[in-house]
Automatic annotation (TrEMBL):
This is GNAT family N-acetyltransferase. Residues 4-137 form the N-acetyltransferase domain. Transmembrane segments: none annotated. It comes from Actinomadura meridiana. Coiled coil: none annotated. It holds the Pfam family Acetyltransf_1.
């Protein structure tokens, strides 16, 4: 049983993180891990066999909120309290008023025991999208759209995610905005997760704009996934109409002070790991 300290991992530990993820039938997700390493604190615990026994990532957004992700424990060490120990370490070392995460069915009981409360459900719709492309009302974001993107994101998410938002142009394969004069009414992106095109974030002032962004961003012929907050039946209807099907549902959870955001305008997260 691993009994060493929880330590802060560096990018050199990425291959070990990926071996651990594969042990839990998660993909290697190289692009995602690298982005998470660049914006968050990755913690891990070593097993006696020299392999990582578990990980957790805390990505703090200023003093308000941190997103917890990649809670993984190697199968050979599960159900011995390691998941709880890693979570407590991340919680003790994150100095934000609130924490948020997206829980799988395996993680939810653990998080509930630690005091997290469910605040929403998110269903992953996956498949190869069919049907017409582009409404054309959105355009690729330019460098001078970034302040407007960050302002809208902060208002809707409820914390200043400056570091993550600054990274979006390189993390995302495409990043679009819908312009309204000098302002924007929404932004949306796609990024590549192994063979999958992930559609997210989609954050906008209204559902019409969100639907426009998604229609413009859905790639033809590619395996695509959209993690849709269940508060948005119009998006679910669009995903179904375009041939995507529900794959799994996760629970959005919070801890600490209620997060002062507006989930009605958060249509899909950047990634479940980041909110
Ligand atoms: C979710 C996950 C991280 C939990 O890790 P873990 O180390 O098994 O977690 P813990 O041991 O702290 O708790 C798990 C269970 O073991 C129980 N447990 C803890 N110590 C125990 C012990 N010494 N003896 C027996 N049971 C014990 C806990 O009470 C808990 O039970 P419950 O879930 O029925 O309430 C792990 O299952 C995992 O990596 N799953 C795949 C990836 C995943 O889904 N991660 C969550 C992403 S949101």
């Amino acid at each position: 049983m691993p009994d060493g300290p929880v330590r802060l991992l560096g990018i050199d530990d990425l291959p070990a993180c990926q071996r651990l993820a594969e042990d839990r039938d998660w993909g290697r997700e190289d692009h995602k891990w690298r982005f998470l390493f660049s914006v968050g604190d990755v913690y891990g615990i070593d097993g006696p066999d020299g392999e990582l026994a578990g990980t957790v990532i805390s990505t703090p957004y200023g003093k308000d909120v941190a997103a917890i992700s990649m809670v993984l424990v190697a199968r050979r060490y599960e159900r011995r309290g390691l998941g709880a120990r890693l979570m407590r370490h991340a919680m003790d070392n994150t100095r934000t008023a609130s924490l948020c995460l997206t829980a799988t069915e395996y993680g939810r009981p653990l998080y509930e025991r630690l005091g997290f409360r469910p605040v929403g459900l998110c269903t992953a719709y996956a498949g190869v999208a069919t049907g017409p492309r582009r409404r054309g009302a959105s355009v690729p974001a330019r460098a001078n759209d970034m302040p407007a993107i960050q302002k809208l994101d902060t208002e809707v998410f409820g914390a200043d995610r400056a570091q993550v938002i600054r990274g979006l142009p390189s993390f995302c394969e495409s990043l679009h905005v819908v312009r309204d004069g000098p302002d924007i009414t929404g932004f949306g992106g796609t990024w590549q997760n192994e063979d999958w095109t992930m559609v997210g974030p989609v954050i906008s002032q209204n559902t019409e704009t969100a639907l426009t962004l998604i229609t413009d961003l859905l790639p033809p012929n590619n395996q695509t996934r959209l993690d849709i907050d269940n508060r948005h039946p119009e998006l679910i209807a669009l995903a179904e109409k375009r041939g995507l099907r529900p794959a799994f549902t996760t629970t959005v959870m919070e801890y600490g002070a209620p997060i002062n955001g507006d989930p009605t305008r958060l249509y899909t997260p950047i990634a479940q790991a980041l909110g």
